[in-house]
Amino acid sequence: MRKLFALLLVLALLPVVPARAAKNEITVYNWGQYISDGTDGSLDVIAAFEAETGIHVNYLTYDSNESLYTKLKTGGASYDVIIPSDYMIGRLIEEDMLEPLNFDNIPNYQYVDEAFRNTAYDPENRYSVPYTWGTVGVIYNSKYVDEADAGSWDLLWNSKYAGKILMFDNNRDAFAIAESLLGYSLNTTDEASLRQCAQKLVEQKPILQGHVMDQIYAKMEREEAWIAPYYAGDYLYMVEENPALEFYFPEEGFNIFIDAMCIPKGAANQEGAEAFINFLCSPEICGQNLEYLGYSSPLSAAKDYMDPELAENPIAYPSDEILAKGESFSALPTETSQLMDSLWLSVKTAGSDVTRYLIAAGILVAAAAGLTIFLKLRRKRRLARRGISRRM
């Protein structure tokens, strides 16, 4: 009994390492190339946060809202902070996949502009804090693309530039382009309209170089591709590497989005996550972070810490007249999301059935030819053997 008591006493006195480790560590899951990292003399946001708080950050990236959703839905990984887009936040809230925030731990929320509070995707301001906002448009290389062809989404279907056009590799952004071009709402739930959009995207495939996300940076900067739809903030990043790149807001309309910081259900360190969110809402940190990214700030106070040229840039901060042509995504009903997923799969695989048929047909033809040759040779051998036996 004494040995057992002594053992229990020792165990009771041992430090609870996992709990202490959790308080000093968080895992952040963010879009690729979406935080100032210290390059080119910029602020290293994560290093600055770690130095101020003593909390270590494990930093991971994804390339689309849909891949983020799949990771969260299938489990197998734990994150403390995620930064999805507006419509995806609405979906995560609806499916009870986010933790309510304790705003006592996020005092810098006071700096968030009223325009970014009580949003349609989080009307009670319980689950999210805005990180950036922005728009989607067309990036093109002025060295190779005729200015007269620019202005509309239809540039992405212009066969003159076949093999040099890129397209979004996620269904919501890709369908939004087809919806704008065909005159539909970016939040349509009409099946016939969505099927028309899918057909429009299939028609585009023969002239595409490929569907991409983060690969766009290298391809456009190195002029491997000349035309692509993408986010305005990323264009401002890319044009620094290649001044020949230009950007426009398509005349048919475009998506306006907000990306916001959230804590997924079951996060290991909610308090540490809220400290990270609060840090990013500091006007000084936000200003330096978004000056590097080129994205638009939901904190007007952050502009005081930006280069005035960026704070007044008409692409980062478009006029009210231009913004009036934009539309934000809403969370779609489950059945509509499933239909779009299915239609997107049909878009991505369109043409592959023909390819498989041609390959299979080729194999059959080759096999038939081989069989014919084999039979002829066997017949000749038999005849030869018969001739020998007669001579014997």
Automatic annotation (TrEMBL):
The opening ranks of the lineage are: Bacteria, Bacillati, Bacillota, Clostridia, Eubacteriales
Q: Which GO terms describe its molecular function?
A: polyamine binding
What residue range is the signal peptide? 1-21
Q: Does the keyword Transport apply?
A: yes
Q: Which GO terms describe its biological process?
A: polyamine transport
Source organism per entry reads Candidatus Avoscillospira stercoripullorum
Cite the CDD domains for this sequence: PBP2_PotD_PotF_like
GO terms for CC? periplasmic space
What Gene3D superfamilies does this protein's entry cite?
Periplasmic binding protein-like II (3.40.190.10)
Where the protein is mainly located, per its record?
periplasm
Which keywords, in A-to-Z order, does the entry hold?
A: Membrane, Periplasm, Signal, Transmembrane, Transmembrane helix, Transport
Instruction: State the compartments where it is located.
Output: Periplasm
In its UniProt entry, what is this protein called? Spermidine/putrescine ABC transporter substrate-binding protein
Segments passing through the bilayer: 357-377
